[in-house]
Design goal:
By secondary structure, the chain is an alpha/beta fold. It is about 45% helix and about 15% strand. Its main location: membrane.
Length: about 475
């Protein structure tokens, strides 16, 4: 059996420096103080690297990033946050060579717990060999590692290979060459990262991390001001005044006219990018349109400038609620059931197609610089705050034409056919890909539960999350 052993950092990944990934663990698994402390030690870490003390600098990074952090938090970050940033740094040419072999082993200087999920599920590696984090009896990381020596790693690699020696070794000193033979045997593709979590948009390199820290206090004040201003100003003025405060709303297409007294309302079927999709849509239409919701926090409902209709996920009960709201006027629904950050659309629930033939698809998208506005692991009540903490948040709203009658259930089409058709329309408009993944699939990946419900927290748990995010 032909086999390959490849280094991760600097070979399969373009960047040989793992510092930014430890910064991600520090921020997402612990909080701002640990994030700042690790950044403050970067000159020391860099100096140790320059004088040839790589092992010491690596152990220092590991200790500061994870000491005292629960194992479950580290696993959560490794599952929900790191794969996105690893994938963005993947060297595709080297991965083609790596994936052309039958037996694939990855060697990393990073603790295995951080990379194992990514290299096995996304890069199709058979085994990963790295250092082992030490945990105490309470499952808290001690910050120390074992199995770090080159002899130990070499022995573990040899034990994994039946013939004792790999066919090819890929490292920084011996870059592989992609031959026709390699390419002909290339049958796999990296598994794309569709679901990911965490608050940071960009990989926190030292310069980016410093910028984030300097911006944080300004961003908090700016977010509070923006939210307060949005609750005071008339709704019709928000698209115009947003420019005064470094925000922007881009509108494409022609929205429908408001419903007359004799007609039922229009159902706006939107892609779901952030919690603010219905609010932005309402501001563009210059009227407060109710939105159906599933699992937003009570705080978000209180702060919402538009009416919200909380659904139960019991089909007949939810159908009746939606019908009642449509009889009063327009309504907004996001049939994906949860947000997705990447250029993919989750499978649309077909319920909306059963209830009306007045369907207007709306393609929603957004761009932010520092912080994501949705999270599965943290407290959802902070979502709007993080969105407005961005220096220049941009929203794009594209109105498509109302579905013709022949494309609705009134013409005999099944609700699933209608839902799939709307999904394809919106995906084509945004340049996204359609998937069959659902909300349950998302939470299986990100939250590690069975996907039957969103992660819920007691009030104490929520407050701990807030303190950990901004302080600990």
């Amino acid at each position: 059996m032909e086999s390959v052993v490849s280094e991760l950092e600097g070979t399969l990944l373009k960047d040989s420096d793992a510092f930014s990934y430890f910064m991600l663990v520090a921020f997402e698994a612990s909080g701002l103080v640990r994030f700042a402390l690790l950044l403050a030690l970067w000159p020391v870490i860099r100096f140790l690297d320059m004088v040839g003390m790589d092992d010491v600098s690596l152990k220092l990074m590991i200790f500061v990033a994870v000491a005292g952090v629960p194992k479950s938090e580290i696993e959560s970050v490794a599952r929900a946050v790191l794969p996105k940033f690893y994938m963005d740094d993947l060297d595709m040419e080297k991965w083609k060579v790596f994936s052309s072999y039958e037996k694939r082993v990855v060697v990393t200087k990073t603790p295995e717990i951080m990379v194992e999920m990514f290299v096995k599920e996304h890069l199709h590696a058979d085994e990963v060999v790295g250092t082992q984090l030490s945990f105490n009896r309470f499952d808290l990381a001690t910050g120390f590692v074992h199995g770090h020596s080159s002899n130990t790693i070499s022995q573990r690699v040899a034990n994994l290979l039946s013939n004792g020696a790999p066919t090819l070794v890929m490292d920084q000193s011996h870059p592989p060459v992609l031959t026709d033979q390699n390419y002909d045997h290339q049958l796999l593709r990296p598994l794309p990262v569709i679901f990911h979590d965490g608050r940071l948009v960009k990989r926190p390199t030292p310069s980016t991390s410093l910028l984030i820290l300097l911006w944080m206090p300004v961003g908090i004040v700016l977010a509070i001001f923006r939210i307060a201003l949005g609750s005071i100003l008339p709704f019709w003025s928000i698209p115009y005044t947003s420019r005064l405060f470094t925000g922007k709303i881009i509108v494409k297409g022609k929205p429908p006219v408001p419903p007359s007294g004799s007609n039922s309302g229009v159902l706006f079927v939107c892609t779901h990018r952030t919690l603010l999709d219905p609010v932005v849509l309402s501001s563009v239409l210059r009227r407060r349109i109710p939105a159906v919701t599933y699992s937003i926090s009570r705080l978000s409902e209180i702060l919402s400038p538009i009416p919200t209709v909380r659904l139960t996920r019991t089909r007949h009960v939810d159908a009746e609620k939606i019908k009642q709201e449509l009889s009063k006027g327009d309504l907004v629904v996001c049939p994906e059931g949860t947000t997705c950050r990447e250029p993919f659309l989750l499978r649309f629930s077909a319920l909306f197609a059963e209830l009306t033939d007045r369907i207007v698809p709306v393609a929603m998208n957004y761009r932010v610089g520092f912080f994501h506005a949705t999270t599965a692991r943290g407290w959802k009540g902070l979502d709007p705050i993080f969105f407005f903490m961005n220096p220049r948040p941009v929203y794009e709203v594209t109105f498509l034409n109302q579905l013709p009658v022949e494309a609705t259930c009134s013409s005999g089409k099944s609700p699933h056919d209608v839902a799939n058709y709307v999904q394809r329309l919106l995906a084509a408009t945004l340049g996204f890909e359609c998937t069959n993944f659902t909300r349950k699939d998302k939470y299986k990946v990100l939250a590690g539960n069975d996907g039957t419900a969103s992660p819920t927290f007691s009030l104490v748990d929520q407050m701990v999350k807030v303190v950990r995010t901004f302080i600990l």
